[in-house]
Design brief:
It is elongated and about 65 Å long. It is mostly helical. Helices cover 79% and strands 0% of the residues.
């Protein structure tokens, strides 16, 4: 996974020289997520397997390689980069929302189970 992430970063840096800094966001997403997880530990929780996550990851490499090849006209390259960035934003956004919700559920369960035994039996504090 890290080799793929690095390749996507390299391709996005190459695309950013021609199409602007925003193309770099495609390669920076993974590293921004890792950096955010240092400040927000709930981002380190395991995610359920999803085929769509694999599709989006593979799509990034293919779309960036096509853009880097120079075979597309400028408007098509920009559209391709927009699709790549949009799908990546959707994928990361969905996973971050899931991780946040799961952390809230875990915290609620921890709070409930750390209450005194009398509270659990009677429902009163």
């Amino acid at each position: 996974m890290e080799v793929d992430a690095f390749l996507i970063l390299v391709l996005s840096v190459y695309a950013a020289f021609s199409y602007g800094w925003w193309a770099l966001a495609i390669g920076a997403f993974r590293y921004a997520f890792v950096a955010a997880s240092w400040a927000l530990p709930w981002l380190n929780a395991a995610l359920p397997p999803r085929f769509s996550r694999k599709v989006v990851a593979a799509q990034q490499g293919v779309l960036l390689a096509v853009v880097a090849s120079g075979l597309l006209p400028t408007w098509a390259s920009v559209a391709t980069l927009v699709i790549a960035l949009g799908s990546l934003t959707w994928s990361f956004g969905r996973d971050i929302a899931w991780l946040h919700k799961a952390s809230q559920v875990r915290e609620a369960a921890r709070t409930r189970w750390s209450a005194s035994p009398m509270t659990l039996v009677t429902g009163r504090v």
